[in-house]
Amino acid sequence: MIKCRFPVEAGNSAVRSGKVEKIFPQILEDLKPEAAYFFPEGGERAGLFVVDMQESSQGAEIAERFFFGLNARIEMVPVMAAEDLQKGLSGVQGVIQRYSERRSTTMAKYLFQAKNELDWAPLMDEVWLDFPELSHAR
Q1: Domain check: are 74 and 15 in the same one?
Q2: d(CA 77, CA 53)
């Protein structure tokens, strides 16, 4: 999603000169947004475009349209449709298990004891339970 804002004076000049009438249709034709919205924000002209970026490298090319065309500030935010979110959430259980509070607490205790050269052998049983992927270091 791309959000653009351009200053009032620059916008007024662009509207008077007909630049806006030329630039926005060109941006819409080039980007082929799924949706485009225009609104005032913070006392400036603003727009929101939902586009399908295939590669992050497209960001520079997209941004320059707004920078050169309208002297605009932009923000790019990755967004996803509901079905993409559902697909992404299917792998969350592993992340939760891997980064849970218990694992973080265990690792913090382990690091504290290792740093302070305390007897950390009793804690290792807890580490092996919480971090089975480290069992090769046992």
Answers
A1: yes
A2: 11
Domain hosting 42: range is 2-79
The 10s digit of each residue's pLDDT in 118-135 is: 555 555 566 556 666 655
**Cβ–Cβ under 8 Å, residues 45 and 74:** no
Report percent pLDDT > 90 for the chain. Answer: 43
Strand partners of residue 3: 48, 75
- Number of domains observed in the structure of the chain: 2
Answering whether pTM is above 0.85, one says: no
Cα 54 to Cα 31: distance, rounded to the nearest angstrom: 12
Query: Distance between CA atoms of 80 and 22, rounded to whole angstroms?
Result: 30
Q: How many CA atoms lie within 13 A of 2 on its CB side?
A: 27
Bin 85: left if φ > 0, else alpha if -120 < ψ < 50, else beta.
alpha
Dihedrals φ, ψ of 69, to 5°?
-70, -40
